[in-house]
Write a sequence for this structure.
């Protein structure tokens, strides 16, 4: 018997079977789910509203004993539930609607961005993060967690500093934001030549892979760790191996 | 039968095939009183995400991943940390009544000497019965990454089972290359 097989003998749920009453409650909950607005019965414009109402209603009852936060309507967000540690690359053309949603918040005007202005775009579940050039020289990062709600947050990035040394990265922006949908953290920075991959290691061991393009990297995740001093580690991969840094060690 | 009925029928079949495993998954991680509600919330998220399309071929790790995200969000909000720990392993008192008493007690002690991150990786395979590919799906990482984390966790478990051994740091999420 190997170590994993030995461990399996300690599983307290190994012989657990729900009783008839519990199964009945589960079936009733399933039927309530079908009565909530579902994607098959809603148009796109109503779907997200239906989601919020549905999840809020269930979670207020369902998770009330877990945390008071659920009772205030601060339920887990759909974007967070669909979040993935590995991003999906998005073409500039596909991310243009989100970039233009971001531009709606630019108070100093200027022409709307084009696909050529999008430096980097990624999706994790339903949420989109884009780095958009502004006025030809400036660069903004922008989150669209929910297309229905528009831009959730944006930040102006410094583009004047020289690129980091080969194989090194610089952290240009990091932090955590708590909106009506809970905490989310982000880190954005520059990558020197030869950097092949950047990952953010969270305290629970989750490895969040950053998007990397044209010398910039960006990642976000549900949680507040980005707002904690050296609350994560930045792992930089090159052909020669990997190095791990505290954010303060590579701060711009 | 209309379109909605077909989608509901598919989802009922998915629920029937996965309910007990998902409930066990959640009960391993939070108190029993809260487990039913998290399971219901996970199915609600799954229903909303699935729409009218067919369920994924391997629905179990997909649902586990949804439930884990719900638990992680709750955990982050309550505890300001993102660990989805495996709360309940048979404790020493229970082990004391079982055959192979000493070995089981040692195993329980070694288990709790590990970091929560190590426990989660081990539990996905040893308790939840997932393959490395499925477990990687749940954690949102690549298979190679999961294999590396699993191997490290198994090594630390073996070290923890050796008496008077200096263990590597229990919280090993940060590793300099």
């Amino acid at each position: 018997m190997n170590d994993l097989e030995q461990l399996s003998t300690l599983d307290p749920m190994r012989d657990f079977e729900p009783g008839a009453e519990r199964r009945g409650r589960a079936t009733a909950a399933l039927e309530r789910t079908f009565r909530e607005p579902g994607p098959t019965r809603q148009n796109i414009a109503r779907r997200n509203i239906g989601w919020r109402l549905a999840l809020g209603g269930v979670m207020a009852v369902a998770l009330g004993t877990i945390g008071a936060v659920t009772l205030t309507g601060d339920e887990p967000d759909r974007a967070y539930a669909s979040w993935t540690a590995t991003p999906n690359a998005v073409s500039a053309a596909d991310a243009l609607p989100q970039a233009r949603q971001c531009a709606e918040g630019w108070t100093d005007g200027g022409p709307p961005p084009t696909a050529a202005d999008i430096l980097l775009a990624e999706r994790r579940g339903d949420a989109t993060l884009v780095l958009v050039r502004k006025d030809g020289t400036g660069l903004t990062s922008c989150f669209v967690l929910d297309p229905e709600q528009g831009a959730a947050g944006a930040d102006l990035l410094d583009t004047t500093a020289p690129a980091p040394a080969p194989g090194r990265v610089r952290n240009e922006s990091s932090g955590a934001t708590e909106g009506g949908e809970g905490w989310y953290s982000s880190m954005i920075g520059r990558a020197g030549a030869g950097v092949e991959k950047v990952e953010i290691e969270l305290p629970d061991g989750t490895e969040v892979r950053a998007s990397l393009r044209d010398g910039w990297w960006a990642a976000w995740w549900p949680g507040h760790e980005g707002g904690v001093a050296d609350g994560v580690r930045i792992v930089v991969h090159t052909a020669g191996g990997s190095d791990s840094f505290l954010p303060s060690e590579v701060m711009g | 039968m209309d379109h909605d009925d077909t989608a509901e029928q598919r989802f009922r079949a998915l629920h029937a095939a996965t309910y007990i495993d998902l409930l066990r998954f959640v009960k391993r991680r939070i108190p029993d009183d809260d487990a039913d509600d998290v399971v219901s919330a996970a199915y609600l998220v799954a229903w909303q995400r699935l729409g009218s399309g067919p369920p994924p071929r391997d629905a179990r790790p997909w649902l586990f991943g949804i439930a884990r995200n719900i638990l992680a969000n709750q955990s982050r909000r309550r505890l300001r940390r993102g660990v989805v720990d495996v709360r309940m392993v048979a404790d020493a008192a229970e082990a004391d009544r079982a055959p192979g008493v000493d070995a089981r007690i040692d195993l329980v002690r070694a288990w709790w000497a590990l970091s929560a991150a190590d426990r989660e990786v081990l539990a996905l395979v040893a308790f939840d019965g997932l393959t490395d590919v499925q477990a990687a799906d749940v954690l949102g990482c690549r298979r190679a990454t999961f294999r590396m984390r699993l191997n490290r966790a198994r090594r630390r478990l073996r070290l923890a089972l050796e008496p008077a051994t200096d263990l590597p740091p229990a919280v090993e999420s940060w590793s300099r290359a």
